[in-house]
Design a protein that fits this description.
Elements lengths: L6 H7 L5 H11 L4 H9 L2 H9 L5 H20 L6 H7 L2
Length: 93
């Protein structure tokens, strides 16, 4: 279920929260963004295909990449965007 993708991140940030509250928060965060989440994960299809063509060797790179980008998607959807001013100012155009 796409609506439950941020469950790990919510649990990591709030370890004392019950599972029911985590599920409610997941649905609240992804309520209006289900299509955005779907398109986000579909954008990695090419990486998965390349990973299979390399017999799984590419997944050493792809798995952390997808994990980090899904964390940033969670932060953006939840309204708690993480901005490191030093890094963002360095790469701003």
């Amino acid at each position: 279920m796409l609506a439950l993708f941020p469950a790990n991140y919510i649990l990591y940030e709030n370890s004392d929260v019950s599972i029911i509250e985590i599920i409610k928060e997941c649905f609240r965060i992804t309520k209006k963004a289900k299509l955005k989440v779907l398109l986000f994960y579909l954008s990695f299809i090419g990486w998965y295909i390349l990973g299979m063509l390399t017999l799984g060797i590419l997944f050493i790179y792809v798995t952390p990449y997808i994990s980090v980008t899904s964390y940033y998607l969670y932060k953006k959807l939840s309204g708690k965007e993480y901005v490191n001013s030093e890094i963002s100012s360095q790469y701003m155009i």
